[in-house]
Design goal:
Blueprint (H helix, E strand, L loop, with lengths): L1 H20 L4 H7 L4 H26 L4 H21 L3 H29 L5 H30 L1 H22 L20 H21 L2 H7 L6 H25 L2 H21 L3 H27 L6 H28 L7 H38 L4
Helix pairs in contact: 1-5, 1-6, 1-7, 2-3, 3-5, 3-13, 4-5, 4-7, 5-6, 5-13, 6-7, 6-10, 6-12, 8-12, 8-13, 8-14, 9-10, 10-12, 11-12, 11-14, 12-13
């Protein structure tokens, strides 16, 4: 199964790098384009907004006729846009390229996840979906620091060149695979019905809130550590969070297939809450390292767990549901970062931000319990319907 999915994982790696790498080279880009870091920061907003809109409106259209073709078109748009970013002569071209890159990324994430699920057997569905998340987390963990190092040594345009290189490699892998990727199931109608259920709407809300707490708070990990007297541990904490994310996204897949996503979701949300509490109230490096490891693992593991919980009983709607879920997560990340900036601007010490995140995470735990319970009820009902269809009257 992994052999079949790895080209999709490679594509996800390039997305993971692109989504976060610009934050590390904003001053360089601003100086190169003769503008401010704030103006360049709009590129992150443009990427996120385009990701959300394109992922939820264009993903199903992209796969009509051929899943492979849809993936190649999305990757082609993503790579071309990042090449334009690397060569951008001014701010308008830069911002326009970030919109196009976000569009390609939004379509690619949803289609790649649905394709991975389609390539796997029923007993390996969770593992397949978690491999795409592994690509995203690995790109963030390993690619972003490497990209920042390249930017420091060679310039930010070479950083974007690295993203393009990874994207081209994954595009070549998909092209070589030929027709091995099966069609992605497509639910009838506009797709709105796929997200109209209470469980899916709750899951989308959970994805948004998790983006606010986990990814949003991660933006301020270094100032939080400094405010708690752990400035010297900042680099180690960044890497530990990333290692946890990669490990969590790899290991959770088998647990989803054996234990069930409905049971995994509340446990992961609770672990995330506990990690925020430790970071908020303990000043010890060992406690921070352990909590940050759990934070990264639970945050990233929750992504495929939620995908499986929302789509296992409605596989024909996987593309649409994943598109809305990932859009909500990235929008939540942007909202969490903005809320953190507002709190710091209002005089809140950076060390108190985990308390705010923990308060919001209480709501995420409640949503995780509700989504998991609804998923188990839906699975039971589906099994009962299948049994009733097999029983034929004499």
């Amino acid at each position: 199964m992994i052999r079949k999915v790895w080209p999709l994982v490679a594509a996800a790696v390039s997305l993971g790098i692109d989504a976060y790498v610009l934050a590390g080279v904003l001053p360089q880009i601003a100086g190169s384009l003769s503008t401010t870091a704030g103006a360049i920061g709009l590129g992150v907003t443009a990427f996120t907004a385009a990701y959300a809109v394109a992922g939820t409106t264009l993903s199903r259209r992209a796969t009509r006729g051929s899943t492979r073709r849809g993936l190649l078109l999305a990757l082609g748009l993503f790579n071309a846009a990042n090449l334009i970013t690397a060569l951008a002569p001014d701010l308008p071209v830069f911002l326009g390229s970030r919109v196009l890159s976000g569009m390609g990324a939004g379509i690619l994430t949803a289609v790649a996840t649905a394709a991975a699920a389609g390539l796997a057997s029923e007993g390996q569905r969770g593992r397949a979906m978690s491999m795409v998340t592994f690509g995203l987390s690995a790109g963030t963990v390993a690619g972003v620091p490497v990209g920042m190092l390249v930017g420091e040594q060679l310039g930010w345009r070479w950083t974007m060149g690295l993203v393009v290189l990874v994207g081209v490699v994954s595009m070549a892998a998909l092209a070589v695979r030929g027709g091995e990727i099966p069609p992605v199931p497509d639910e009838p109608g506009s797709g709105v019905s796929a997200v109209a259920s209470w469980q899916v709407l709750s899951g989308i809300a959970l994805a948004f809130l998790s983006g606010v707490t986990s990814l949003g708070l991660y933006t301020y990990l270094l100032p939080m550590a400094a405010d708690s007297g752990l400035r010297a541990w900042g680099f180690a904490l960044i890497w530990v969070w990333g290692i946890g994310g990669v490990a969590g996204s790899v290991l959770v897949g088998k647990r989803i297939d054996t234990i069930g996503a409905g049971r995994m979701l509340p446990a992961l949300a609770t672990a995330l809450l506990a990690s925020f509490a430790v970071v908020a109230f303990t000043p010890w490096p060992a406690a921070w390292l352990a909590a940050t490891l759990v934070w990264g693992a639970a945050g990233w593991a929750g992504v495929p767990a939620l995908q499986d919980a929302l789509t296992r009983t409605r596989p024909e709607a996987t593309t649409t549901i994943v598109a809305f879920q990932m859009a909500a997560m990235y929008l939540g990340s942007a909202a969490g970062s903005a809320l953190g900036t507002a709190l710091l601007g209002a005089g809140t010490p950076a060390g108190e931000l985990p308390i705010w995140a923990a308060a919001a995470q209480v709501g995420a735990v409640a949503l995780a319990v509700a989504v998991g319970a609804a998923g188990r009820r839906a699975a039971t009902a589906r099994t009962a319907r299948a049994r009733s269809r097999r029983v034929r009257p004499c």
